[in-house]
């Protein structure tokens, strides 16, 4: 049976005006696939990179990498999901900005009854990211309770989850954000210290907070505007985790600069290397579900937009007007 779904697509890279709603036919799932009907869809900064062309894709492109809903049909060989299951995912290929879709089942997980669809849609990509950053890419000397870490854009979607999770792990998180109100929000969610990096020199403040030593890890998703100074926030053998480009991509640099700054380590991480199998995806999702169910991490949804208002949603995210998570409602 073929059904019709609204799907937000772009036919050329560019600004939010490129986002259009097309009607697409959705058929039956093939081997290893499911058909899911969305109840809520997560908005992520990666959607902006794909729309703008920073991350190239073939056209036309259906956008969106996160969603939650009900499984309507299951293809051959899929054993972890059945028709009627509540489910949520962070997954490639993009295409979650729609009513329903057929997609690979590998990254789709059953959503525990205690977690509602909106929370599920908001938390999968951002929560799994916070999880692997804090738990699956440790610095060379390990990450232990009491260690200082610096987390940029701490009041954002990934940021507020990371603040809470870091606190639960006993880490002393210093968060940066672009306004005093955002800094206060990050502190409410577990950041021990915050720095408004629009008005303060964050490297100088980090040195002050850490008694001149620096932090063990910097988590930097802002990119161009923060990368260089972030290296100056690290202690010897510290780890620079670059994982985004909200202000633009990081410029090429010579590895030689890392020696005199303290034999630093640099890595560029992406969630999609961490969820390349069903087992790894489920193990990470189980940790995320557990920390959310325990109440240690609350998923804060500060913006809700109708799917048809997707252009406004993108404009808000890019203009730094959002805090916490943003969802689209079909
Ligand atoms: N590699 C991965 O696995 C992975 C996975 C998920 C997300 N990410 C990255 O993590 C970051 C956070 O993602 P998110 O979806 O949760 O977004 P978000 O943090 O809610 O939004 C991005 C934030 O970046 C800050 N920012 C700083 N300079 C900016 C600029 N010039 N333009 C726009 N924003 C700027 C803003 O906060 P302030 O106003 O406080 O500065 C803004 O709110 C993004 O860079 C995303 O690409 C990476």
UniProtKB/TrEMBL annotation:
Keywords: NADP, Oxidoreductase. It comes from the Bacteria. It holds the Pfam family ADH_N. Residues 14-328 form the Enoyl reductase (ER) domain. NCBIfam families: PRK10754.1. This is Zinc-binding alcohol dehydrogenase. GO terms for cellular component: cytosol. GO terms for molecular function: mRNA 3'-UTR AU-rich region binding; NADPH binding; quinone reductase (NADPH) activity; zinc ion binding. InterPro entries: ADH-like_C, ADH-like_N, ER, GroES-like_sf, NAD(P)-bd_dom_sf, QOR-like, Quin_OxRdtase/zeta-crystal_CS. Transmembrane segments: none annotated.
């Amino acid at each position: 049976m073929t059904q019709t779904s609204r799907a937000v697509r772009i036919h050329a890279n560019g600004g939010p005006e490129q986002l259009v709603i097309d009607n697409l036919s959705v058929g039956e799932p093939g081997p290893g696939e499911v058909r899911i009907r969305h109840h809520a869809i997560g908005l992520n900064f990666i959607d902006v990179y794909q729309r703008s062309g920073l991350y190239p894709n073939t056209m036309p492109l259906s956008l969106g990498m996160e969603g939650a809903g009900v499984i309507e049909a299951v293809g051959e060989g899929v054993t972890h999901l059945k028709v009627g299951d509540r489910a949520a995912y962070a997954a490639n290929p993009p295409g979650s900005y729609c009513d329903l879709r057929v997609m690979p089942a590998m990254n789709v997980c059953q959503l525990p009854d205690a977690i509602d669809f909106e929370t599920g849609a908001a938390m999968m990509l951002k929560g799994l990211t916070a999880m692997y950053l804090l738990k699956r890419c440790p610095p060379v000397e390990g990450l232990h309770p009491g260690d200082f870490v610096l987390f940029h854009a701490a009041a954002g979607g990934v940021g507020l989850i990371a603040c809470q999770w870091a606190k639960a792990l006993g880490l002393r998180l210093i968060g940066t954000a672009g306004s005093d109100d955002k800094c206060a929000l990050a502190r409410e969610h577990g950041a021990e210290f915050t720095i408004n990096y629009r008005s303060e020199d964050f490297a100088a403040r980090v040195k002050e907070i850490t008694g001149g030593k620096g932090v063990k890890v910097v988590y930097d998703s802002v990119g161009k505007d923060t990368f260089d100074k972030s290296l100056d926030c690290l202690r010897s053998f510290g780890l620079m985790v670059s994982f985004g480009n909200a202000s633009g991509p990081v410029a090429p640099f010579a590895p030689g600069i890392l020696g005199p700054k303290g034999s630093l380590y640099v890595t560029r991480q992406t969630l999609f290397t961490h969820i390349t199998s069903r087992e790894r995806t489920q193990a990470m999702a189980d940790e995320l579900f557990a920390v959310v169910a325990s109440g240690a991490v609350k998923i804060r949804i500060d913006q809700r937009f109708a799917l048809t208002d997707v252009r406004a949603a993108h404009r808000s995210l890019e203009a730094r007007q959002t805090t916490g998570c943003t969802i689209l409602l079909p």
